[in-house]
């Protein structure tokens, strides 16, 4: 039977985007370093969604935008939260290293929202599974 110690040894749970109104300007989650984990699940906790909101995932060569170092994942990956339909819902998007161009240095994942004027309350939690580098404490997956 698994216990909390097993959970702490095998997964890293981090807040990628605190509870926020993602309406207005584009909002970005923390960059996630996929080189450290076998896969990462993004868990979207939607509150009241008053306008369709799209989260788009991209890959980067570093943990900050340097313009040309950002490109689409190998398979386009998005999550669409629809007004009223997705109110008070939980959605999960799984990102695996196979979606990244790791051989060319793209090991970071970025998730951003669309820009729109209406309110959309969301928080995003990232869970990294099976850390690749064993340490006494789980390696951080954000910058």
Question: What's the gist of this structure?
Answer:
The protein is mostly beta strands and 143 residues long. The protein contains 1 helix and 9 strands, in the order H-E-E-E-E-E-E-E-E-E. The chain has a single domain, classed as Sandwich (Jelly Rolls), CATH 2.60.120.
| β-sheet strand percentage | over 45%
- Largest pleated sheet: 5 strands, antiparallel
CATH topology: Jelly Rolls
The chain-level structural class is mainly beta
Order of helices and strands: HEEEEEEEEE
Count of extended strands: 9
Can you give the helix content as a percent range?
Answer: under 10%
Please give the CATH architecture.
Sandwich
Distance between the termini: 33 Å
Overall shape: it is globular
The low-pLDDT segments are: none
Number of domains: 1
Number of helices: 1
| Overall pLDDT metric | 82
Q: What is the CATH domain class?
A: Mainly Beta
Please compute the radius of gyration using only Cα atoms: 15 Å
Protein architecture, described:
It is a single chain. With 143 residues, the chain is mainly beta. The protein has one domain (14-131): Jelly Rolls, CATH 2.60.120. 5% of the residues lie in helices and 45% in strands. The chain contains one helix and nine strands; from the N terminus they run αβββββββββ. It has one helix at 4-10; strands at 11-21, 32-33, 37-49, 53-60, 70-72, 78-81, 90-95, 108-113, 120-131. Strands 2, 4, 5, 6 and 8 form a five-stranded antiparallel sheet that branches. It has a four-stranded antiparallel sheet with strand order 1-9-3-7. The protein is globular. The mean pLDDT is 82.
